[in-house]
Amino acid sequence: MKIYHGSKKIVTMPICDHKSVSKDFGPGFYATGSEELAREWASQDDNGGLINIYELETDGLDIIDLISDKYSVLNWLALVLSERKLVFYSKAEKMNSDSIIRRYLPDVSGADIIKGYRTDDAFLVFCKAFIEEKIDKEQLIRLIDKADLGEELVIRTEKTMKNLTYLGFETVDGSLYYPKRLAKEIRAMELLREQTDKHKKTSGKDSLTHPYPELYLTYSMKLLGELTGCAASCMSSFPEMTPDRFLQCFIISGYASCIESGDPRVILGLTGSELYIKVLSDCGMGSDDLLKEAPESDESDIACWCGEMLAFYQWYRNISFSDLVNSLSYGRLFALYPELHLIPKEEAAVIIDQKLGNRRSASTRLQAHRKRLGLSQRELAEASGVNLRTLQQYEVGDKDIGRAAAEKVISLSRILHCRPDHLLE
Fold first, then answer.
1. Could you tell me which residue, 134 or 19, shows the higher pLDDT?
2. Buried-most residue among 130, 164, 250, 299 (CB within 10 A)?
3. Strands 49-56 and 29-31
C-alpha cells in the first residue's frame, strides 16, 4: 500500500523512536493513506512543503485499526487521552479521563502499526467536550464524522520500517492546501458552535460574532485566571514584573494572539503556571524558580477573576488583547472587582462597556488642556516629541495616559503649562 508523510523536508529514512514527542498514538513515524491529507499536513503556512511517498508491505505485520468494527470510538479516545497532554481543571474531569483510559485503553503493546482518526490540536476540544460531559458518545461520533478528521497511521517498530520503501517526494502548493487546512479547522469550530449553541436559538439579544466557539471560552478563562494569579503571586520575588507589565509581555510573546484565535495547543495544552514561564522566557526573563519561591498571594482570588474577565471580555467583544489592555488595564479591572465579581460575566461586560464608553465620550484632561491653548494635535505632538498616533489615543482614552512613561507626561505638561498630574485621568 502507498502511504504519505507531509513535511517541510525530504525524509528518505524515517525513524520511529521519537519518544520525547507527544503524539496521538504514542511514539513512532506518522503517515496517512490519503495523499490529500498529507498535502494538508505539509502546508503549515502559505509556503507549502513536501509529501514523501512510500510503499508499505503489510504482510506479517500486527495492525490495530481503531476505526474498524472491532473497536469503538472510546478505544480511540482512551489511547489519545493516554498519550496526549490535556489539562483538566477539576477532579471530576480527571476522574472521567482516568476512567475512560482504565476501561477502554486497547492493548497496543505488540502492534507494529496503529491506525485511527487523525487528532490535530484543533480537534482535541472534541475529546475535552466529551470528558466534561458536554456531549455524549453519539454526538462525539457525529462531530468526528462531520469534521472529516481523516485517518492516520503510526509505524512503531523497526520490523515495519524494513517493509517501507521510499518512492520519492512531491512539492505541495501552500497557497492551495494551507487554506484547505484552515478551512477544516474552521469547520470544526463551526460544528462545535452549532453543537453548543443549539439551546440559544432566539434569546432576544443582539447576536455577537465571537472569535472562537463558546466551548473554548471555559478553558481560556481558566487559563488566563491561573496566569494572572501566577503574575500576582510572583510579585513578591519579582516586584518589577507587575501584572500590568506582565500582560504587555503576554502580548509581545505572541501567546495572547494564540488565545485570541482559540489555539487549542495553548488553551488545552498549558496550565497557567506553564504559560507564565513561557511568556517570561520568550521575553528573555524569569525561570521556574520564580514559581517555586512564590507564596500564595492574598489577592490571588482577585487576580484570577481579573484574568477570567479579560479572557471573557476579549472573546465577548472580539477585540485584540493589545487594544483591550490599552483601555481596560489590569489595575482598572482590579478596582472594579468589588462591584462586578458577584454578577455574571456577560452582565459585567455590559457594565464595563458603559464605563469605557463614558470614558471615551468624555473630554480627557489632555484634550481640554490642548484646546485651552489652541494647539492642534500635530502641533502638540511635534513640540512634545510624543508620537501623534499615541497622543490621539491618549486623548480618546484608547490608551491610558496614567500608564505612559513619565518623561512623556512631563514633556506634555511643559508644553501645556500644567502640572504632570493634571493630565492624568
1. 134
2. 250
3. unpaired
